[in-house]
Write a structure and sequence with these properties.
It is a single chain. The chain is α/β, with parallel strands linked by helices and 199 residues long. The chain has one domain (5-197): Rossmann fold. Helices cover 40% and strands 19% of the residues. It contains 8 helices and 6 strands, in the order βαααβαβαβαβαβα. Strands 3-2-1-4-5-6 form a 6-stranded parallel beta sheet, sandwiched between helices.
Amino acid sequence: MTIDPRRVAVLALHWQVNVIEPLGFFGPMLAEPVAASGVVDRAVQFHTVARASGVPVIFTRFTVPEGEGALVRNTGFMRAVGEAQESFRPDAAGAQLIAPMREQADEVIDNQKLSGLAGSNVAEHLAQRGIDTLFLTGVATNLTVEQTARHATELGLEAYTISDCVAAAAEEIHAASLANLGLATAGCLTAVEAVALLG
């Protein structure tokens, strides 16, 4: 099986300082396991190869503009972000993409939802470009990645999580999330497998 690269986009989820770096808002929970996993280097390489194949890499950032935008404080996660919203302003240091990926973005889209497809025009934008397949990278596997993959599937898209380009706070959580996604979406692929599908 092969996939026409013109039908594919990489959706790169929450590769931002607040999520990945030790001094970021979620650093105490995620920075150490992310660093230990080596996921950043693998994702950088995958994004580079995908772009060379003609596949756009679209980054999503979780940001909170003045007035809170579309943020809804209906979970502990969203309440915590709401209380620390200054750290998530679009121009705040913590909201920026991590340094190794800043030059990889063909597009950057901000929203205030866990799903990278919610509260923005990403889905419509993809449809207009004839894109019906997504390769997902990002952190955390069980949060934005899983939420986005399920959302994409409900929208009729084929969503593949790139299993070695995502990470979570603990390996067992990561593995359980990938198992869920293997059943509930188009499935999981390694970066090598995904590139091979592009022909």
